[in-house]
Design a protein that fits this description.
323 residues; mainly alpha; MetI-like fold; 2 domains; 14 helices; 76% helix; globular
Length: 323
């Protein structure tokens, strides 16, 4: 296992170099110059001033020189400064990461707590009313766009009913004497974003869990366990459910980083101060150091998510061995 993990970690190096080259090239293919979007919008900017700004930011050099300069600084831990705000990129990212992790963790917990039992019950009650309802709900969840669902939740629960806040992460100006009210206040702001982000994930995972359970229930070892006289609960919990979780583990390896990187629109809609909102602003402003840092971190999360999924296989299925 240790040797396998070391090999996978070594493979990360060329993968990250390739991803950084692609990201750097793509951001330069977009119209406009990185870091000069806000400056060039002004009608009072002269060509001399633009030339001086390009030289200051290093944009007057060939693209390969710009890349090698950025990459050499990045591997030394120098992520540079934001081209638009002037603040260190690392500071901007570390300020936003806790909020994105909180939102992603709450969404993943919401998805897992509901999808696994619903998928199992749907498989055990195949072709029943429960199964048909779960299937219809799953397809509806996959078909509904997240941004539309977010707006509907805001209209119903924030505007009409007034039960939940429409935007933000906490009540502005509120003072709490102890952690209990503070947690409850944060949970109120989490409900709508978590429901929105969890909609498609919950629907998809229910279908995967149902399909996995149906496949496992037809295996010979399940018939053998029942023939030995084991109780149905033991057969389902110990033998069927554990093996049905294998495809779920694979999917989670992709979904955990996808939740972090894919929450940009939802964070913007709900005003959630996370990485997604930061990424949207950086792209619109063509803030090259900030865009590259966020893209690189997203790639690292995806690679490590896949590695954790492979390692989790060993704990879910003892038959899996890495030599």
């Amino acid at each position: 296992m240790v040797a396998y993990i070391i090999r996978r970690l070594v493979q990360i190096v060329p993968i990250m170099v390739g991803i950084s080259i692609l990201s750097f090239g793509i951001i330069h293919l977009a119209p406009g110059e990185p870091g000069l979007i806000l400056v060039t919008e002004s009608t009072y900017v002269t060509e001399e001033f633009l030339a001086a700004e390009r030289a200051r930011l290093g944009l007057d050099q060939p693209i390969h020189i710009q890349y090698f300069r950025w990459f050499s600084q990045w591997i030394q831990g120098e992520w540079g400064r934001s081209m638009t705000g002037g603040r260190p990129v690392a500071t901007l990212i570390w300020e936003r990461i806790p909020m994105t992790i909180l939102l992603s963790a709450a969404t993943m917990l919401f998805i897992l707590v509901l999808s696994i039992p619903i998928g199992m019950i749907s498989a055990l009650k195949q072709n029943s009313l429960i199964d048909h309802a779960a299937t219809a709900g799953a397809f509806a969840g996959l078909a509904v766009p997240n941004f539309w669902f977010a707006m509907m939740l805001i209209i119903v629960f924030s505007i009409h009913l007034g039960w939940l806040p429409a935007a933000g992460a906490r009540t502005l100006g509120a003072r709490f004497d102890w952690w209990g009210p503070m947690v409850l206040d944060r949970l109120r702001f989490l409900v709508l974003p978590v429901l929105t982000l969890g909609l498609s994930g919950l629907a998809g995972l229910v279908r995967y869990m149902r399909g996995g359970m149906l496949e496992v229930l037809e295996q010979d070892y399940i018939r053998t366990a029942r023939a030995k006289g084991l109780g149905e609960r033991i057969v389902i919990a110990k033998h069927a459910a554990r093996n049905a979780l294998l495809p779920i583990v694979t999917i989670l390896g992709f979904w955990v980083p996808a939740l972090i990187s894919g929450s940009a629109i939802i964070e913007a809609i709900f005003g959630w101060p996370g990485m997604g909102q930061l990424m949207v602003l950086a792209v619109f402003q063509r803030d090259l150091p900030l865009v590259m840092a966020v893209n690189t971190m997203g790639a690292v999360l995806i690679i490590f998510g896949n590695l954790l999924a492979d390692v989790a296989y060993v704990f879910v299925d003892p038959r899996v061995k890495y030599d």
